[in-house]
Amino acid sequence: MKSLLLATALILPAAAQAQAIPDAQRTAILSDVDGRAATLASTAKTIWDFSEVGYQEAKSSALLQSELKKGGFDVKAGVADIPTAFVASFRNGAGPVIAILAEYDALPGTAQTTDPTRNQIAGKAAGHACGHNLFGAASVTAALAIRDWMIANKVQGELRVYGTPAEEGGSGKVYMVRAGLFDDVSATLHWHPGSANIVSVGPSRANISGKFRFKGLSAHASASPERGRSALDGIEVMNVAVNMMREHVPSSIRIHYVITNGGEAPNVVPDFAESYYYVRDVDPALVKSVWARVVKASEGAALATETTVSNEITGGVYSMLASETLAKVMDRNLNAVGGVAYTPQETAWATELQKSLEVKRPLAIAGQVLPLGRDGDGGGSTDVSDISWVSPTIGLSTATWVPGTPAHSWQAVAASGMSIGAKGGVVAAKTLALTAADLFRSPETLAAAKAELLKARGPNFKYEAMLGNRKPALDYRKPMAAGK
């Protein structure tokens, strides 16, 4: 499987490069996005305020659907058995199908104001520490601008926006791929908030994530401990076993966990406990094999503690198989758009926030476009990867955060809710829109991207979701209570 990932580094013929649309049309698209910049910022801030976690993004999803409906898109909600997922379509005759992805889920435990210093919001359970509020708003902005261009220039084809919930561990896109919603898509475009402007073709990490639930017997922890069998002991023995196992897995493997339920009171032997595990690697097959060993560790822990254990895979994604063909088109457009320009006030804000960063990078990076990225896997995982195995796919990152800001941090939450974040969203919207327009006008590029994908994934490939045939894990963000 790993060898398939290396096959993406192809030398493509000159004919595979998209011809730019006329300058006048490019100017019109850029002006269209600029005219929607205030709405993009407002929408992003509203979703930032909602801060809804995976599969609970009802208000965020409804807001994006409403904007697309107003913009002339036909919207189908609740696709793939996910209430907050949707597909919005604008069809202008027969032609290629270009997809743009939109995310909007927040991360639990990351609430923060837009101050450049640590200032949690009391009573707020989640925050947009990965900037998905910007992701959704900018993608919709790009789609509305492309629709205007298609109508004005009588461009044939179909433009779709995929509203994709629960990217953070819930694998929402996987269920949409499994349902066949991307089978006819000619090219899929996406983006992500970040601290630099770059198009990347590097792989991500495949992963499997899930919950382990131990059940035991309650008893008074002091008066009659011999009558109890601690479910928490089961969790702890499992964790020890897995931590011992780290020495005996490939060094590229990543395993991490939290205990989501460890009991309620120290003087009660807990009869229920739950942990939440991730296993990651670039090679999907290796992830599956190590996950099987983690399951064995849980079973051994249950035997040792005279408890019982069950497990539920709540998420699972492939590694990214990004398209070199599409990357060259998107990279050219990102360079044409350029980076983010700070005002003096934004510079002062960014300088203050930067004091809290462990890694400090020049603020000028936000205004630059970095060379096409090919190295490394970035360490993270995304359910966009599953789409990349069935549809030619490419994405970019833009400087929505202060250079040096790590994802999933309070600093990312702060920037995602203010003007710096929105400016990065505008860069993304413009790049997505120009790239989609180029692809609509370049069937030879789409054909080359499809041929590249077929070669990279190898003969006889059949998509099978890493999470199997289970239904969407709509409650994965809710710890299971004892007795359930």
UniProtKB/TrEMBL annotation:
Keyword list, A-Z: Hydrolase, Signal
Signal peptide residues on this chain, from the entry's feature table: 1-20
Positions of transmembrane segments: none
Source taxon at top rank: Bacteria
Pfam families: M20_dimer, Peptidase_M20
Residues in Peptidase M20 dimerisation domain copies: 207-300
PANTHER family: PEPTIDASE M20, XAA-ARG DIPEPTIDASE
Name assigned to this protein: Amidohydrolase
Organism: Sphingomonas floccifaciens
